[in-house]
């Protein structure tokens, strides 16, 4: 799989330099490349307890992205998914530790425990005061004697960081971090594995399955479970978390494991507010990518009791973009629609012929959706069929309320339905088409539809030859006076001609090269052709 990297060997050092250069002077790094990769606060005066964390890279923005006032003082970065060396950790400790001492925040992995632990011993031998806490928030394997450290580590960073910034001593900060760790619970789920730079992607999760209880280093989850959507995913994770929690209000950290879109994360958050956990969650951090596993398409949930002590630390402001802040979870706020957003609806009326035409047209578009999506994938975003099918379903659902016996009112009602149910430019253009047709309905159906086409071209700017639906619609409407069969033949001829057009001048296909367009019929034109063919009984 292609990645935006230069080499596996240089990826971490180059990423760190990119972060430091764009930090606005907040961050610096030690001059220890390539073996020592430590990011520190550029403004650090060693006058408070220092917080040092880190581990393998690949979890960005953790850990270097959380270096800043009120959070980490330094982050020690290893290779991708590999603990940093003892020398690197020791360099980080010595660079930031003053008389107040240093707290090491370490995730519970063998390499991290050993390297950070030995570095702490060496630092103590050099006269530094160093304490260490181990984060073990993973609940996927309840019987495991040493649970893994996951995204709940960020709660420790933030709360301990606030205490250190406020001037609390090392013993107090370490004890507070210990209380946070004792209250932490985390679990994750993913639909796909991650891509380790320079290595082939492992393909171990079959379609229809998700991994539950996975770590953050690409290791397999505890179990592969059936996957049927966001609601089911949240339900499974919530069930595991709920079994380990009491009824006290909780803060939840909604973490993107790296490859889940913001849109998906928002849906997962919505489902969380309807899950078995909903009544127990008073505050939320995220959703955001905070402790990732490269590009893994997954998420993790971490919970912590919402005590006054913990909330005080979480709510302090920090100048670190990677920390999304904590907010309360409230009721869904819904405001009334403004008046006059829709024209008055004409009364419903019956007309068997008009009804059958609409039913035929809608059923045709529904059946054609997969083919149209496949065509659109050649030149667009693959949703033409789905968009038209959505409009068809909306028209069928509202069929009994349409003014079928009044052509002008019917065109207006169709325009209104399309504007509400179709997304993108196609929905607006077809709404304009039927709105203009309504104004000319007294001139007869062919003339009214041609008026609609003229207005659609005026607003949209497309013309015949531009490789759009107009290449089929314009000739069809020109031939409509001769009957539906003639219109269908003209539409088919116009649609087929688009396959020979190697350049689109309108729509998303205008951004696509000739090689991708050649030999493929425009999906909008194909939809028009199939529509007229169905209406003509072909």
Q: How many helical stretches? A: 17
Quickly name the level 1 CATH class of the largest domain. Answer: Alpha Beta
The main sheet orders its strands as: 9-8-7-12-10-11-13
Which architecture of the largest domain would the CATH scheme give at its second level?
Answer: 3-Layer(aba) Sandwich
Instruction: Give a count of the beta strands, DSSP E runs of length 2 or more.
Output: 13
Shape field: elongated
Structural class: alpha/beta
Poorly predicted segments: 508-515
Domain DhaK: 7-323
Protein name: Dihydroxyacetone kinase
Domain DhaL: 352-537
InterPro entries: DhaK_dom, DhaL_dom, DhaL_dom_sf, Dihydroxyacetone_Kinase
What would you say this structure looks like, in words?
The longest helix is centred in the C-terminal third of the chain and has 28 residues, at 352-379. The protein starts with 10 loop residues before the first helix and ends with a helix. It is of the alpha/beta class and 538 residues long. It has 2 domains: 11-197 and 206-328, Rossmann fold (3-Layer(aba) Sandwich); 352-535, Serine Threonine Protein Phosphatase 5, Tetratricopeptide repeat (Alpha Horseshoe). The chain has helices at 11-21, 86-96, 110-125, 153-165, 170-183, 230-242, 262-272, 308-315, 352-379, 384-397, 407-421, 424-439, 445-460, 470-478, 484-497, 514-517, 523-535, and strands at 27-29, 38-41, 50-57, 74-80, 102-107, 130-135, 185-190, 209-212, 223-226, 250-256, 281-288, 298-305, 326-328. The strands form 2 sheets. Strands 9-8-7-12-10-11-13 form a 7-stranded mixed beta sheet, sandwiched between helices. Strands 1-2-4-3-5-6 form a 6-stranded mixed beta sheet, with helices on both faces. The chain contains 17 helices and 13 strands. Residues 352-537 form the DhaL domain. GO terms for molecular function: ATP binding; glycerone kinase activity.
């Amino acid at each position: 799989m292609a990645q935006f990297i230069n080499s596996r060997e240089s990826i971490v050092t180059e990423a760190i330099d990119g972060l430091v250069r764009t930090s606005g002077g907040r961050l610096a790094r030690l001059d220890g490349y390539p073996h020592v990769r430590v990011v520190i606060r550029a403004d650090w005066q060693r006058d408070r307890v220092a917080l040092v964390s880190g581990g393998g890279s690949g979890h960005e923005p953790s850990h270097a992205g959380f270096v800043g006032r009120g959070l980490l003082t330094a982050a020690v970065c290893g290779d991708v998914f590999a603990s940093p060396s003892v020398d690197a950790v020791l360099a980080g400790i010595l660079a930031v530790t003053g008389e107040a001492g240093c707290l090491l925040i370490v995730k519970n992995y063998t390499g991290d425990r050993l390297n950070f632990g030995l570095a702490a011993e060496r630092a103590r031998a050099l006269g530094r005061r160093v304490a260490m806490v181990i984060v073990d928030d993973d609940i996927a394997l309840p019987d495991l004697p040493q649970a893994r450290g996951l995204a709940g580590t960020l709660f420790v960073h933030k709360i301990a960081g606030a205490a250190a910034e406020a001037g609390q001593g090392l013993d107090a900060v370490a004890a507070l971090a210990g209380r946070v760790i004792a209250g932490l619970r985390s679990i994750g789920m993913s639909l796909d594995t991650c891509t380790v730079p320079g290595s082939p992607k492992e393909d171990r999760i079959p379609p229809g399955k998700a991994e539950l209880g996975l770590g953050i280093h690409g290791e397999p989850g505890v179990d592969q479970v059936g996957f049927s959507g966001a609601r089911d995913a949240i339900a499974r994770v919530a069930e595991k978390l709920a079994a380990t929690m009491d009824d006290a209000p909780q803060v939840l950290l909604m973490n993107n494991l790296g490859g889940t879109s913001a849109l998906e994360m928002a849906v997962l958050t919505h489902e969380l507010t309807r899950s078995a956990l909903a009544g127990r969650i008073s505050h939320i951090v995220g959703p955001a990518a905070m402790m990732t596993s490269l590009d893994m398409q997954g998420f993790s949930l971490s919970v912590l009791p919402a005590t006054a002590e913990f909330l005080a630390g979480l709510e302090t402001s920090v100048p670190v973009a990677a920390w999304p802040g904590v907010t309360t979870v409230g009721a869904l706020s819904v405001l009334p629609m403004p008046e006059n957003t829709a024209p008055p609806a004409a009364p419903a009326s019956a007309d068997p012929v008009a009804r059958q035409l609409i039913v035929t047209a809608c059923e045709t578009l529904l059946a054609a959706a997969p083919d149209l999506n496949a065509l659109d994938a050649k030149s667009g975003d693959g949703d033409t069929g789905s968009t038209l099918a959505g409009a068809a379903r909306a028209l069928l659902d509202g069929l009994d309320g349409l003014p079928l016996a009044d052509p002008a009112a019917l065109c207006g009602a169709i325009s209104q339905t399309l504007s509400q149910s179709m997304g993108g430019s196609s929905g607006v253009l077809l709404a304009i088409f039927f709105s203009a047709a309504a104004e000319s309905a007294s001139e007869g159906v062919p003339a009214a539809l041609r008026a609609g086409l003229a207005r659609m071209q005026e607003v949209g700017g497309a013309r015949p030859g531009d490789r759009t639906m107009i290449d089929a619609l314009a000739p069809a409407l020109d031939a409509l006076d001769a009957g539906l069969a003639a219109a269908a033949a003209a539409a088919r001829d116009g649609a087929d001609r688009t396959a020979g057009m190697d350049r689109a001048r309108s729509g998303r296909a205008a951004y696509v090269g000739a090689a991708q367009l050649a030999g493929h019929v425009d999906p909008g034109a194909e939809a028009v052709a199939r529509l007229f063919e169905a209406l003509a009984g072909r």
